[in-house]
Design brief:
Blueprint: H1 2-16, H2 41-50, E1 52-53, E2 56-57, H3 59-62, H4 73-89, E3 115-119, E4 123-131, E5 134-137, H5 139-152, H6 160-163, E6 171-172, E7 175-176, H7 177-212, H8 215-241, H9 249-288, H10 293-321, H11 327-343, H12 345-360, E8 368-371, E9 374-381, E10 385-390, E11 395-399, H13 400-405, E12 409-410, E13 417-425, H14 431-447, E14 457-463, E15 468-476, H15 481-502, H16 532-550
Signal peptide: 1-19
Keywords: Cell membrane, Membrane, Signal, Transmembrane, Transmembrane helix
Transmembrane segments: 171-192, 230-258, 326-344
Length: 551
């Protein structure tokens, strides 16, 4: 029951829309003289299209609307039919009630001349022109008919316009048999084309990429792009061959509108997927660099490009596909964008701050930075903020706008990590022992694998209130803070071992009361050897022991 209702509705619709213009004499009274008159744009249009209707086919009368001088009647009739096919093939639906019926009509919108344009976007060169009191298609339009017809029916498909009707003109469901056969052939052709293109892409493209060693890339990234491209080719074929069937004009106009919108939509999808390929390429390049900030830049670049593709693609679909005038939209968008920019200036500032971070590269992921109250390791750099892991293991989110304007101390960019301390020894330490101790400290630095050998300072440089001070100023060549702490640990252990070996006592803030020694009591002051060779022997023993540890 429902199927019969659908068929009945479809039959009624197709019969109603079987001509370029809809004429309903019961609702729109039309003077028969208007169907054979050139007095106004309205009557000329009515004369041309009404006499090319299937139920009132008289191309000889329709040819009178063409402004011809050197063509014969037969040539004029062929040109009239071709011009009608141009209107049909481009989906230009002529609304007869909107055409002016003024014999003295002036086109004030374009050129202030006695001309009437039907569709300035699709058929800008097709227009009526008044001359000698008659409205006809202009000489320029007549000269363009042949070329426009080839553009509308390219690749030799214009020959099918005369071939397909030979299959039969019997009417079924409001369509001729040749139209139904053409629909079946078109569907079959599209199905076979899609299968063929998919087979070529799946087998041919993947096979070639696997031979080149890029099979994974082809399957994950290139194959989806190729499949969407095959859909685009199917849409192009549909756009070309749907015109040949000469379906009712209103149906064709809607089909062509949807197909024209589908083209930029599919192209947008293709570019959207291509962004993933570009991002993968840049990700591979980022892996080869030492900077970790590049790894954060690639996802941001991918998101930005995808947003750009979606915005441009949407505008393209609206303008070229759905024929929407986007100029007012863009004008309103610019005004709204100004208001949005004023309301979201902090967000915009943070966005440009992130761009400056990626351009200047003041730090990268994993660096230890200090900026004001911020002290921690960079974990992630986003569009709006930077995530920093503090040494308390908490997470701080700092707006990029503030970071771009702040002074940043990047500890992660240090080539060498400084270690400075003062070694204090007691005042009773003899000079020869101090000298041996300093010499031993220098040997420790030279023997350590992570210390800078070309620049360090170890000197006995001060006499303080309670100690003799030795400056210990060295640099570590290590990649991170953990390695620095490990090197400090090793160095300090060696210093303490050296002091124990030589008998050096470290001083600390004390007050000592010296009393005369008694025969039965030993003094607390240690006894030092007066021979410097003793300290050198102990030093050599220490150095040999340290060397044996490394071996």
């Amino acid at each position: 029951m429902r199927f019969s209702l659908v068929l009945t509705s479809l039959f009624f619709l197709i019969n109603t829309l079987s001509a370029q213009i809809i004429l309903d004499e019961n609702h729109i009274p039309i003077d028969p003289e208007e169907m054979h008159s050139l007095s106004s744009p309205y009557s000329a249009t009515l004369t041309f299209f009404y006499n090319l209707r299937e139920d009132n086919y008289d191309p000889e009368i329709a040819a009178e609307v063409l402004r011809t001088s050197d063509q014969t009647l037969e040539e004029s009739k062929k040109l009239a039919v071709k011009l009608k096919q141009i209107f049909d093939g481009n989906g230009v639906y002529v609304k007869i009630n909107e055409i002016p019926n003024n014999p003295n009509y002036i086109d004030s919108l374009h050129n202030n001349q006695a001309r009437y344009f039907f569709e300035t976007r699709l058929l800008p060169g097709v227009y009526l022109e008044k001359e000698n009191g008659e409205w006809k298609f202009s000489s320029f339009t007549v000269e363009q008919i042949e070329s426009l017809h080839k553009e509308t029916y390219p690749y030799g498909t214009d020959k099918l316009l005369n071939t397909l009707p030979k299959l039969g003109n019997e009417v079924y469901l409001g369509l001729h048999f040749w139209q139904l056969a053409g629909l079946f052939i078109l569907i079959l052709l599209l199905f076979l084309s899609h299968k063929l293109i998919t087979l070529v892409v799946d087998k041919g493209l993947l096979f070639a990429l696997e031979k080149l060693g890029y099979g994974y890339i082809g399957e994950i990234y290139l194959l989806p792009v190729a499949k969407v491209t095959s859909i685009y080719l199917v849409i192009v074929l549909t756009t070309i061959f749907i015109r040949i069937l000469q379906l009712p004009i209103e149906i064709v106009s809607w089909i062509l509108l949807l197909l024209n919108a589908a083209k930029p939509f599919v192209i947008t999808i293709v570019f959207y997927k291509i962004v993933d390929i570009i991002a993968m390429y840049f990700a591979r390049l980022a892996e080869k660099t030492e900077s970790t900030l590049d790894d954060q830049l690639v996802p941001l670049l991918r998101k930005t490009l995808k947003a750009f593709v979606v915005i441009v693609g949407t505008l393209y679909v609206l303008k070229e596909g759905l024929q929407v005038d986007i100029v007012p939209f863009l004008t309103g968008l610019s005004i709204g964008g100004l208001a949005f920019a004023l309301a979201a200036q902090d967000t915009i500032k943070n966005f440009f701050g992130s761009i400056m971070i990626f351009i200047d590269k003041p730090f990268q992921v994993g660096d230890w930075i200090t900026s004001g109250d911020v002290d921690g390791t960079v974990e992630e750099v986003g569009f709006r903020s930077t995530r920093i892991r503090t040494f308390r293991n908490s997470v701080m989110y700092i707006p990029n706008g503030k970071i771009a304007d702040a002074t940043i101390d990047n500890h992660g960019l240090r080539q060498y990590r400084r270690f400075y301390t003062t070694l204090t020894v007691t005042y009773d330490t003899p000079p020869d022992l101090v000298e041996a101790f300093v010499e031993g400290l220098r040997k420790i630095v030279i023997n350590h694998p992570d210390t800078r050998k070309d620049y360090y300072n170890i000197y006995f440089n001060n006499l303080s209130a309670y100690s003799q001070d030795i400056m210990f100023y060295v640099f570590f060549e290590v990649p991170n803070w953990t390695e620095e702490l490990r090197s400090r640990h090793e160095l300090l252990i060696s210093i303490v071992s050296l002091a124990n070996q030589l008998g050096v006592r470290f001083a600390f803030p004390t007050q000592t009361l010296h009393m005369e020694s008694f025969p039965e009591k030993k003094t607390l002051v240690p006894e030092y050897s007066a021979d410097p060779k003793t300290y050198q022997a102990k030093l050599q023993e220490f150095v040999a022991k340290e060397s044996n540890k490394k071996d």
